[in-house]
Amino acid sequence: MESNHEKERKLEDETRNLIARLPKEIALDIVSRLPISSLIQFRFVCQTWNMLTRDSRLVDLHLSCASKINPCIIFKTYHLRKEQLFFVELSDNDDDEHKLREIQIPFSTSMPIFRVVGSCNGLLCLSGVYDHEAVYIYNPFTRQHIKLPNCNELEVNEVVYGYGFHPATNEYKVIKIGYYSHVYYVPWCFHKSVKKDYPLSEVHLFNLKRNTWRNLGELPYKLHHSPGVLVSGRLHWVTRFNWHLDRLIVAFDLSDDTFQEVPRPDFNVDLFHCRYHLAALRGCLCACLLTSIGENLEIWIMEEYNKKESWVKQFNIGASSIVSQHLPVSYDIWRTSLQKGSVKVMCLLKNGDILLDCQGGILIAYSTDEKMLKIIHLHGMPNSCQAIAHVGSLNWIANPIYLA
């Protein structure tokens, strides 16, 4: 009589053989629907399955499927000595308690303190906080990574990074905007500096296909430190208040490497007392306004890109839209987040809910149908962290320079 162990082993063998007997196109289609964490484990079952995951067609198939389901949420912890990455895969069931799992960073010794510049097609861009020259492109699930060559520049005081991909050129690019400490900025005269021999800023662009940095010159805007929001092949930032009193939206086109202003909504509020950030929903650029009295979050959507008249105030999320088993706790979190201005619109979930990051790592889903909010319960959540929506993928940069 067979033991339970023998039965399990026999079932595993039958499953392996079944996958091996299937036509390759069907097998790839089945495997492409696995979550990224399951797909990575799938690699280690047997040699046949490992070879299947290395088929170049699977990368595109899986990335296409992964972009249609709930994203992974990656959390970056804040620590004085060494920062970490964790991830969670959100299920379709709102009542599930999700467990965080740690991501190993192969280059953590050389860059222990970092910021997440952005996520695109399953690849993260990380930059050093204290070492402005340290920039990595990294797939957190396959652990493939590259360090970009140093960018020769003067000593900078502040750096704003951006990272994205343009499908028309099939190129990944990293933009680095350095602001110099020897310049005395005058808000009402931002084209001038005390030391005329030096620029106010300097823009450098790295093309991962060409493996080169290129100097694009000076930028007459001081951009907010938040990651650039990628929409329509362009990265978008909001300018900082000390240079532009009306807080403009500035875009960088990844196809022709140029900057331009994008019209923002008519909020009809004083932006000195209110703040807004950018997001991407349904492939459209969004402007998310936190009102001055901390009562509402307005989400404006630009339905037709670069058309001012196409801005529409789509959602108005108030402090009372809370649904939870622990109503007082939920209400306090949301109300405090609004008042502190620590609410960030992250992404759209598969069921149509809008995912919000409150106070750095507390996730709340806003139901666009029911006009209500609900906290997403996470097990093992760090005290304070940065949350990033990420599409888990096997993707890597097909460039012989890096793969050699």
UniProtKB/TrEMBL annotation:
<dbReference type="InterPro" id="IPR050796">
    <property type="entry name" value="SCF_F-box_component"/>
</dbReference>
<dbReference type="InterPro" id="IPR015915">
    <property type="entry name" value="Kelch-typ_b-propeller"/>
</dbReference>
<dbReference type="InterPro" id="IPR013187">
    <property type="entry name" value="F-box-assoc_dom_typ3"/>
</dbReference>
<dbReference type="Pfam" id="PF08268">
    <property type="entry name" value="FBA_3"/>
</dbReference>
<dbReference type="InterPro" id="IPR036047">
    <property type="entry name" value="F-box-like_dom_sf"/>
</dbReference>
<dbReference type="Pfam" id="PF12937">
    <property type="entry name" value="F-box-like"/>
</dbReference>
<protein>
    <recommendedName>
        <fullName>F-box domain-containing protein</fullName>
    </recommendedName>
</protein>
<dbReference type="InterPro" id="IPR011043">
    <property type="entry name" value="Gal_Oxase/kelch_b-propeller"/>
</dbReference>
<dbReference type="InterPro" id="IPR017451">
    <property type="entry name" value="F-box-assoc_interact_dom"/>
</dbReference>
<dbReference type="InterPro" id="IPR001810">
    <property type="entry name" value="F-box_dom"/>
</dbReference>
<feature type="domain" description="F-box">
    <location>
        <begin position="16"/>
        <end position="61"/>
    </location>
</feature>
